[in-house]
Amino acid sequence: MSQNTAESYDRDRWHGIAADAKDHFETRLFIGGEYSDSADGGRFETINPANGEILAAMSQAAVADVDRAVASARQAYRSGVWSRMAPRERMAVMYRFADLVEAHTVELAVLETLDMGKPISVVVSEDLPAVVNTIRFMAECIDKIEGAVTNTADDAMHFTLRESLGVVGAISPWNYPLLMATWKLAPALAAGNTVVLKPAEQAPLSCLRLAELFVEAGGPPGVFNVINGVGEVTGKALALHNDVAKISFTGSTEVGKLILQYAGQSNMKRTGLECGGKSPHIFMADTPDLGAAVEAAYHGIFANQGEVCSAGSRLLVDRSIYGEFVERFVNEGKDAYVPGDPLDPATNMGPLVTREAQDRVLGLIGRGKAEGATLHFGGGVPAGLEAGAYVSPTLFSDVDNSMTIARQEIFGPVASVIPFDGADEAIAIANDTIYGLGAGLWTRDIDQAFRMIKEIEAGMVWVNCYDSGDMTQPFGGYKQSGHARDNCMESMKSYTQLKSAWIKLTTG
Ligand code: NAD
Fold this sequence. Notes:
five-stranded parallel beta sheet; about 40% helix; alpha/beta
């Protein structure tokens, strides 16, 4: 069922599909192209955050299962069945994989919404098309990766070539379960590696189905394996494994630092880290269109319940437009996102992922109030939705960059407006953070924009828009937001290594 068909479904239809899906959840591990239970029979529960209902008890991969999955991926890699498959053949499998994901939009969307709580309309119209796009883009890149012949003296011939790495361990977060996993597995697979994916334990259902579709598309068994389990057990064992050539990680900065340690404690494996953010979204005195800017501001922090690494959580506003900006944000942003049943296609904001996340976000809102920020709206649990992990969209103004809400990544729908005077102060506040993922900048002045782009310490700067881009844009951060780059050709190259061959020639 395609995206277009799925977009026509109403709430009752989605609830019917969800009820049917609940009878058939796959809960086991996917290793070597087959489902199997964990070695010690361990299980963990996954919960629907919209109502607290236990969805399934998932197999929890123990260290022995991680070993089994890595062995399967290593055997598949060494056999050459995928790594030495002709580029065009591998491309054909990836394209079939993308087509199958697209054809299973309804099934995958329901799993994602039940497990993680994000609105079904968003999964259907944004997340899944992005998943399909990522697989297709990486497929297109397969025979575009090139080496080089360098200029040498006549008695030698030197060339470089890019080779795959081997087994890639992918550890993904829950905020876009399918998309964040795909940002890793698509370039890793396209480059000829084999993959062991450990999805986040808060949303373990959908990626199992993804791996199954890869095999259905003609992907050889063992090339793409999925092991669910908690981070401290399954993720740690994967990151410490001596037969894993690279760990590609997306998640918190705290765990990202552990991944670096695990690499050092084991085989010095490569790491690709995409971590947290506290991104500044800056509105200069000459913001060209304040209406569009305010709209970008509330979408930039309230979309996906604020559970976005690149969320524009710090709104830096020039004091000359500060009053009008806050007033417009209150008038236009207060009801732009209305929490509700995520299986209702009219809903644009679901619950947070877990009760723990809800408690953490409400606790940080409490800190904002206690430290003197002005609360304009939100700040609590929406009426009638107490059974789920909901938090109302929330706006604070008069925030100082030293306050807890301006320093910690909240990962919820909480906007903080911070005043500044002129470009120098805007840059100083923007850079006063351990993070450096994204930054937004609104100005009419091209010279000012250019100067600020260079001075802002962030991997991505958006001018007169926020969080825009396509597959050609490298997605990733500076500083403690990590060092990996997703999407783009660079991403695929990061799953390869450079070999140099120097051939001595006999001259004359
Ligand atoms: P998290 O760090 O708690 O977990 C991420 C993954 O790491 C999960 O699969 C988890 O099981 C695993 N993990 C946890 N402890 C581990 C350990 N000791 N060893 C190995 N693996 C372990 O993060 P989260 O709560 O799932 O996701 C939210 C975080 O992810 C936020 O900080 C957000 O900014 C970040 N994120 C970043 C990007 C990006 O592209 N930069 C994208 C999405 C999310």
